[in-house]
Design a protein that fits this description.
Order of helices and strands: HEHEHEHEHEHEEHEHHHEH
Protein name: Aspartate carbamoyltransferase
EC number: 2.1.3.2
Helix content: 25-40%
Bound molecules: phosphoric acid mono(formamide)ester
Number of domains: 2
CATH superfamily of the largest domain: Aspartate/ornithine carbamoyltransferase
Strand content: 5-15%
Shape: globular
Keywords: Pyrimidine biosynthesis, Transferase
CATH topology of the largest domain: Rossmann fold
Structural class: alpha/beta
Catalytic activity: carbamoyl phosphate + L-aspartate = N-carbamoyl-L-aspartate + phosphate + H(+)
Oligomer: single chain
GO molecular function, one term: aspartate carbamoyltransferase activity
Distance between the termini: 22 Å
Number of helices: 11
Mean pLDDT: 96
Length: about 300
């Protein structure tokens, strides 16, 4: 794998291999070759706590050499393009770039090169607009696998701001491919008929007692228009589409609740339930480090980077 920008092309075997490798790292396994001469950079043009820090933790655990990049202090502010920014990194000797950007498929011009273009840097997508969030999706798969040991036959509900959520896009696609039955819920204006390819839309109260995984999605205020924001009521959303204590009590005994974070407390998720027994919010963040190690390693192997075998 030269780049890791989407889950589109992953098959079940590859997903399971990534899960096994992430579990190896979680159990204290070490990378198999010396990566201290491999330079990487994290370029986050949109806000992030989990993904940015988690990738940096993963890189350090792998022994990579991590460079800092602050978009606000960079020449992007003088009008330099993303391509030219990456060309600069390449020229300096950077081999891998983890990028988050507000533009869907920002990565296409960085990986589909013309005959005269020389950019040679592995791109790992840390989230593109409302497009894809492959590392979140795969850490979610690890978290589900840890609980159930399988995907086929599981009932998974994705609830909330589906249209704007890159987590939802990646997860609906991969869960469907892995044989899970996907349901959608939340406000109908955040549901798109295009999602029918992957699952069916139901009311939350119909789903709560029957799903194995209840995946709550963050309300993405930053992607909404002014009118949408003016009419939004936190209390009303929580009562209609949020995980209330009443709904939590109706979940199956072994069901789990997931949320990619950051959480709008008492909106998607009752604040008192964020760390409840069935919540996997913290486990998802912990798993993120190990899955990102596995993803980085896959690109490192695809590009034949790294020093001698340890
Ligand atoms: N889940 C997620 O992408 O969180 P951050 O925006 O904090 O990285």
């Amino acid at each position: 794998m030269q780049h890791f920008v989407t889950v589109d092309n992953l098959d079940e075997k590859q997903v399971l291999a990534l899960i096994k490798r992430a579990q190896y790292f979680k159990q204290g396994g070490r990378p198999t070759c010396d990566l201290s001469e491999v330079y990487c950079v994290n370029m986050f043009f949109e806000n992030s706590t989990r993904t940015h820090t988690s990738f940096e933790m993963a890189e350090r655990k792998l022994g990579l050499n991590v460079l800092q990049f602050d978009p606000k202090q960079s020449s992007v502010n003088k009008g330099e393009t993303l391509y030219d920014t990456l060309l600069t990194m390449d020229a300096l000797g950077v081999k891998l770039a983890v990028i988050r950007h507000s533009q869907n498929e920002y990565y296409a011009p960085l990986i589909e090169l013309g005959a005269e273009q020389t950019l040679d840097i592995g791109i790992i997508n840390g989230g593109d607009g409302s497009g894809q969030h492959p590392s979140q999706c795969l850490l979610d798969m690890l978290t589900i696998y840890e609980q159930f040991g399988k995907f086929a036959g599981l009932k998974v509900a994705l609830v909330g701001d589906l249209t704007n959520s890159r987590v939802a896009k990646s997860n609906m696609e991969l869960l469907h491919k892995l044989g899970a039955t996907v349901y959608f819920s939340g406000p109908s204006y955040w549901y798109d008929e295009a999602f029918e390819e992957y699952g069916t839309y139901r009311s939350l109260d119909e789903l709560v007692a029957k799903v194995d995984v209840l995946m709550l999605l963050r309300v993405q205020h930053e992607r909404h228009g002014a009118t949408e924001e003016q009419t939004f009521s936190k209390e009303s959303y929580h009562q209609k589409y949020g995980l209330t204590t009443k709904r939590y009590a109706k979940l199956k005994d072994d069901a789990i609740v997931m949320h990619p974070g950051p959480i709008n407390r008492d909106v998607e998720f009752a604040s008192s339930l964020v760390e409840a027994k069935k919540s996997r919010f913290k486990a998802q963040m912990q798993n993120g480090v190990f899955m990102r190690m596995a993803m980085l390693e896959k690109v490192i192997a695809g590009r034949e980077l790294g020093g001698k075998t340890k």
